[in-house]
Design goal:
Helices cover 11% and strands 47% of the residues. It has 493 residues and is mostly beta strands. It has one domain (2-492): Porin. A 14-stranded antiparallel β-barrel has the order 1-2-3-7-8-10-11-16-17-18-19-21-22-23. A four-stranded antiparallel sheet has the order 5-4-6-13. A hairpin with a 3-residue loop joins β2 and β3 (132-147). α4 packs antiparallel against α5. The chain starts with a helix and ends with a strand.
Length: 493
């Protein structure tokens, strides 16, 4: 797990690449992710397949394809912008002192941390006038979300120096209380408590979730009916519907949460990520070895469905609704569930950096917090999302839209709260489109995005662009959202 999370941070830095409501659609990121009614061709995949039935945006171009369209974002309520960047790059720091740990424990208490990476590997769409539009796409989906209560944050960052552990065993073998005048936090080697609590009590209100899946999606959209305009081409009223079928290969799922005295702690992670579960791994019926293959082995699979509808008025007003990721995953490799045991002692000095990802072995694995039991398999629902959106094209140069994106459940990889987004596109020049908007909710705070798209060929033959989800991050240190979305290989023929 440690190396998976390091890799996630590295991807965010090295690939100027939530669950993200616009997925890897770089051209939608700049307009605050508004996409339910505004996306077209293969960019409808996983958002609203009904829009595949719409006429192509550029007349005469019925085929579109794209490679390596990417998006990432990292949001922290606890860290300032320089601290967040440093935490990603510095996976472990010898300079992280006891005082730093105490400070970090306070900063991360009840403060959310979100990471999302979405990489569109290959996407293709074919649109026809008579039978609708077809699209196929494959992409990587990685989402992380964590929020710790005060006690959990103290234990994770301070380790055996947390106030929870009242008795400190020193390097010289003496046992001292933290109030003892001879106590030195730098000389502790382990600690214990005489009043242990269950993990369901310690973690109450906390959440750690990770989802990493590879998606293969086939989508179809078609016009159900249309009422032609009295004059000219097009419809004064038309209804479109679409559906998508996806196969999902699961690389990792982690879901740790406690609420009302109930603990849920599950883990299934590809063996390419080196996690030592100790004796539990030796007797796990779903134990899986990586072998000599280059690609990470899947530890689960599943199927999902997307559905969408779009209503158009006079070809310039659109109202859309969609529901995505209806289905489930069956995890059958390296599946574990933690027991709700009591925490008596600790030999851990706590996190050695702000980078929660590189410190995850303090939570998972044989040396971590939990006692794990292996399982043959486990079935979990997909993170279902409900979308409503509308847009108005005031002219060929200006289009504005609104999206409301809501979680359909609380599965790992889903947004925590509804997202409201307003944004639009402005065709500043025949070859240059500018985008901006605002968004609030989800796993993030208030964001002001911006982006640009350049048409390199006539009629959108070659399109490239770049966007950020929050320009405020460049001028404000607090609650930063480090993000980037880009695409340089989007073509229409």
């Amino acid at each position: 797990m440690k190396y998976l999370l390091i890799a996630m941070g590295a991807v965010a830095i090295s690939l100027p690449v939530r669950a993200q409501q616009e997925r890897s659609v770089f051209s939608a990121t700049g307009r605050a992710g508004v996409s339910t009614s505004m996306v077209t061709d293969y960019q409808t995949i996983g958002i609203n397949p009904a829009n595949l039935g719409l006429p192509p945006k550029y007349e005469g171009h019925f085929v579109s394809f794209g490679l390596l369209e990417s998006a990432y974002s990292i949001y922290s309520e606890a860290l300032t912008k320089p601290d967040l960047r440093k935490s990603i790059r510095d996976f472990n720091s010898d300079d992280f002192t006891y005082e730093d740990k105490v400070k970090a424990a306070k900063e991360f208490a009840d403060a959310g941390l979100s990471i999302n990476v979405d990489l569109g590997l290959l996407n293709l769409a074919v649109q026809t006038k008579k039978i609708g539009g077809f699209a196929f796409g494959t992409r990587e989906r990685i989402q992380w979300y964590s929020r710790f209560n005060d006690l959990t944050s103290d234990i994770l960052f301070e380790g055996f120096n947390a106030d929870y552990f009242t008795n400190k065993i020193m390097m010289n073998g003496d046992t001292l209380l933290a109030s003892d005048p001879n106590f030195n936090p730098d000389s502790v080697k382990e600690a214990y408590t005489n009043q242990p609590k269950l993990f369901s009590e310690i973690l109450d209100g906390s959440r750690i979730s990770l989802s990493w899946m590879r998606e293969f999606n086939f989508s179809y959209g078609v016009k159900l009916f249309g009422i032609a305009k009295d004059e000219g081409d097009g419809d004064k009223l038309a209804l479109y519907a679409g559906a998508g079928l996806k196969y999902l290969s699961g690389m990792a799922i982690v879901d740790v949460t406690a609420d009302g005295g109930q603990l849920k702690a599950i883990s299934a992670v590809t063996p390419a990520i080196d996690i030592d579960y100790g004796s539990a791994g030796k007797i796990n019926p779903s134990n899986l070895e990586q072998g000599s293959g280059f690609l990470p082995k899947s530890v689960g699979s599943g199927m999902g469905l997307d559905f969408g509808v779009t209503l158009t008025l006079n070809d310039n007003i659109k109202a859309s609704a969609a529901i995505t990721d209806i289905g489930s995953m069956t995890w059958n490799g390296n599946v574990y569930e933690a027991r709700d045991t009591s925490l008596w002692d600790s030999e851990s000095a706590g996190f050695n950096s702000y980078n929660i990802f590189s410190e995850a072995t303090e939570i998972l694995g044989d040396s971590g917090m939990f006692t794990w039991d292996g399982q043959a398999e486990r079935k979990e629902k997909l993170p279902t999302v409900i979308r409503l959106g509308g847009s108005i094209a005031f002219s060929e140069k200006l289009e504005l839209g609104l999206d409301a994106v809501m979680p359909g459940n609380d599965e790992p990889g889903n947004i925590e709260k509804p997202v409201i987004a307003v944004g639009g596109d402005f065709q500043a020049l025949p070859w240059l489109r500018l985008s901006t908007g605002l968004t609030v909710g989800g796993n993030y705070g208030f964001n002001l995005p911006a982006g640009l798209v350049v048409d390199m060929g006539e009629g959108g033959t070659w399109e490239l662009g770049v966007a950020t989800r929050d320009v405020l991050t460049f001028v404000s240190k607090n609650n930063p959202t480090l993000s980037m979305a880009f695409g340089f290989l989007r073509f229409r023929v």
